[in-house]
């Protein structure tokens, strides 16, 4: 089998890998659940390539991410749920529907900023998803999944599997749509001080469960402060981690010049090199 720019070849490869008789033993054993972590990892690697402005890596990582889509579609096809073509059809339908000012008729194009248009489109999509879930579950009445105990709540559309900082940010933004929000930063800072004190108390009590809960409250409050100042906490923390790695790498490089390892250096030595690393990365005065 030869490589190709045709998406059909990728689907053929995925089917061959999953073939019960001639496929790859590892691939045959996989399921939606076991593949999901790799899907998340590949998405992060795409983001990392973009941050590094490495277009060679980006091309490869986008391919790896596309493979994840093909993988999940193959798993679904084997169970008679949907296939890759259904995935493509679903997203193309969504994009066309959500952009009537681009793909619609003259009336739709002239009503580009019509109030309530976006909400109407989203409502239609939710109804369609409810009907599809009912069909897959063998329920002839979509209303059984759209109402009652299963009625979608205001925050339900936010995926729970998002990274915690991003999840907190999106939940807060969605809640703020209803007016449930701070109107100035001072109370948020006071809340952070309050949560920090409660975390310290929990730590002092040696209650691990309470400590974890209080730390979560503290982090949630910090995300609130970041959101108020229009800072993405996920990006801010990634930037901090990248800076830490660079400075720690400098320590390792400096020790390596004298044929020493990180484990052989004292804390004072590493601290001195850390300060030097900070000076190196500090902006030069004008």
Automatic annotation (TrEMBL):
What name does this protein carry? Nucleoside triphosphate pyrophosphohydrolase
User: Region annotation Disordered: residue ranges?
Assistant: 134-153
Quote the InterPro entries the UniProt record gives.
Answer: MazG-like_dom, NTP-PPase_MazG-like_C, NTP-PPase_MazG-like_N, NTP_PyrPHydrolase_MazG
Biological process annotations from GO: dATP catabolic process; dGTP catabolic process; dTTP catabolic process; dUTP catabolic process; response to stress; TTP catabolic process; UTP catabolic process
Which superkingdom is the protein from? Bacteria
Segments forming domain NTP pyrophosphohydrolase MazG-like = 30-103, 186-247
**Which reaction does this chain catalyze?**
ATP + H2O = AMP + diphosphate + H(+)
Q: Which Pfam families does the entry link to? A: MazG
According to its UniProt record, the EC number is 3.6.1.8
The family database entries (CDD domains) matched by this protein are listed as:
NTP-PPase_MazG_Cterm, NTP-PPase_MazG_Nterm
Q: Which GO terms describe its molecular function?
A: ATP diphosphatase activity
Is the keyword Lipoprotein in the record?
Answer: no
EC top class named in words: hydrolase
Sorted alphabetically, the keyword list is:
Hydrolase
The UniProt similarity line reads: Belongs to the nucleoside triphosphate pyrophosphohydrolase family.
